[in-house]
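User: Fold this; C-alpha cells only.

Assistant: Input:
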Amino acid sequence: MREDDKKPFPATTLASTPASHRAIKVIAQTALPDGIRRWLRVRRDDWRAARRLRRCVRFTDVFIVGHPKSGNTWLAYMLAILLRKDKRDRITLKNLNLYVPFTQFTHREDSALEQYGDLPDPRIFRNEVPQHPHLYPRVLYLVRDPRAVLVSFYHHVRVEKGDTAMTLADFVREYLARGAKFIPDYADHTRWDRQVLAWTERARRGDRVMIVRYEDMVADRRGGLERVAAFARIPYGEEDLAAAVYRGDFSAMQRIEDEHGFEFFSPAQARRGRFVRRGNPDGWKDELDPALAEGIVRAFAPAMRAAGYLP
C-alpha cells in the first residue's frame, strides 16, 4: 500500500461521532417543533448513510464526477475498455453500466456499491450527484465549457423527454435562473458553476481530485488517457491503450450506439436522436446566439476562470 493510501478518510462534517449521533437522537425525541425534528432526523440518517458508505468504499475505488454532458460517459467507456483489456468489442454504450456503474440511481450510495462487490480493483463508478464525496478515495472530475455543456444538455433532454416545445434560448435562460430544477429527473443536480467551483477548490487544496478538461481530452485522447490511467492506477498494455483510444473516437462511438443502443435510452428515445451527438468542443458556436453565450459567461465567470475558460 502506498503512503497516501494510508491516510484515513476525512470525517463527516456533521454528526461524525457516535456521541454526536446519540445526542441528535435524544434531541430529536424531545418536544421540539416538527421542522427542527425533521431536520435532525435527516442529519441522523445522513450520518448513518455515510457510515455505511465508508464500509463499502475501497481505497482503490475511483469516482467519475461531472455535470451532465461533460464527457463522463465518454471517459467511462474508454476506461472500461482499458481496465477490462477488451479487444473483442464486448463493452458497448449499452452495457457500460456493468463495467463502470452509475451509483446515483439508487436511494443510497452504499446500496449501490454493495451491488458491485465482485468487481475487480480498481473499481470505477460514475456519480453526477454525489451524496458523500468526501468519502471518495479518488475523483476524476470532468469539466467542459458551460456554453457547450448547455447546448449538449438541451439536445439530450429533448431526446430523453421528447420535449420539442422548449427552444434552446428558453432552456439556457431557465438554466441560468434555476439550474436544472426545471428538468424532470435532474432537479437534484448542482448548477454547473457551483459544482465546478467546489471541485476545483478541492483539487487546489490537495484532495485526491484530478481535474480532467473535456477539451484537453479531445485534443490529445491518448495522452489524456495515459494521465487518467496513472491517477486511477489502472494497469494496461500498449494494445489496451490503443484499443481504448481508437474506440473512443466519436465516429466509432456513434457506430457502436447505432448498432447496440445507449444504456439509458429506450427504442423510442433512440429514434428521436443520439446520445453521442457531435463531440466538437466549439460546436456551440454554431448553435448558441452570441447574446446567450455572453449571458452564460457573465453568470459563470468565476467558475469559468477557475476551470481555465476565461483569463
